[in-house]
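Narrative of activities, Objective 1.

The group set out to show that a structural description can be obtained from nothing but a protein's sequence at a throughput compatible with the screening campaign. Below is one input-output pair from the validation batch, recorded exactly as produced.
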Amino acid sequence: MLSEGSARTGSAEGPSSRAVRVLRADFAGFCPGVERALALVEAALAQGHPLCSLGPLIHNDQVVRRLADEGLRCADVLDDVRPGETLVVRTHGVPASVTRQAAARGVRVIDATCRFVRRAHQRAHDLAEAGYQVCIVGDRDHPEVLGITGSVSAECLVLETPEQAEACAPGPRVGVVAQTTQTASNYRDIVGVLATKCRELVAHNTLCNATADRQSAALRLAQSADVMLVVGGRHSANTRRLVEICAATGTPTYHVEGPDEAKSEWFVGARAIGVTAGASTPNEHIAAVEQRVAELTGAMVGPPRPASARTGGGDDDEGAAGCTPSGA
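Output recorded for this entry:
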């Protein structure tokens, strides 16, 4: 929870004394990469294969617990994979060395790496092979970033903020990729700083389309809502980023993992209650939170968006800004 207090309308009326609506963002919940990972795992479990993922498959504790009950074990390192188990590479991907070691040991692998993440791996690898200093816009300890650095033979610079970019000393030729769930504004700002610090810059916009759609939709809704709820795991980077985006509008914003966390005092005076959700949040979890808000406020719940709108994104086009040559 980033922003506390009553809804920004400031009215003393109780929420049930006026018409209240619960509005879901145009894009919210599971992204195509998460849907694919779950489909691969559930199909393997249905066939009776013992599975082991390196880290939780997705950043949603309820889903991870359900999969554990069905036979998906979680391990920290490859050495923890037991004989006979199939290794599941989660959506964040892994360093190339992990899959090579698994193959050398004869471990069967289900690769659920998101295709946008795979693209970031390939772009980083190609930039390094071409002699560029690879800079990654992302969270230093995030598993996706660790996977990207592991796809590059040379040392990478990981930059979380424009201030870190200002302080770094890259080589004369710089190549940039991004953690797929970064915001477009942070990516642009860091690329802008790097452009002043090198002779040649190539920047590949490897942001996920579905993530960009989800962030834009959350921003639009937060700008018109009286209160925002963001549904998703507290370990989910993309969910926390949605909280930051919504709270930055000045709208009281609350991060919840489930319906029981919602509190009636959050909605006093509110007429429009916005709901969005991270990429690892199932539709039924979003709906449960919406239903709880309706119980607390007497609100009408708007119809959920069709699946194509909820997930968003989907093509691999990096856009006009994908490769930006620049000099300093």
